[in-house]
Amino acid sequence: MTKTYKSEAFAALHEMMEGLHDEGAIDKRTMRHFDEACLAPAPMLSPEDIRAIREHEHVSQGVFARYLNVSANLVSDWERGQKRPGGPALRLLSVVRKNGLSAIA
Fold this sequence. Notes:
By secondary structure, the protein is mostly helical. 63% of the residues lie in helices and 0% in strands. It is built from 6 helices and no strands. The chain has helices at 8-22, 28-38, 47-56, 61-68, 72-80, 87-99. Helix 1 (8-22) runs antiparallel to helix 2, helix 3 packs across helix 5 and helix 4 packs across helix 5. The radius of gyration is 17 Å and the shape is elongated.
């Protein structure tokens, strides 16, 4: 999994801290704080963006929903702007946008 950092400086800092964590110099709790500080959040997607991702993959809402492990009604709600994806769903949508459905299949 490729990580997205806020900047190159944060990437370098995070890589150094991962090395320290791997060697046991810092604990998981501290590493989580560095993850939160250094890693960029998943970008917000508009309803049009979500529809474009699905259409680019040439799948129906139902098939797209199965890949994302959500209901077809939820995908429809996202595409109509009735609801917004968050958390894991937003991250999965970002991965599919960047790498295609094969990345999560």
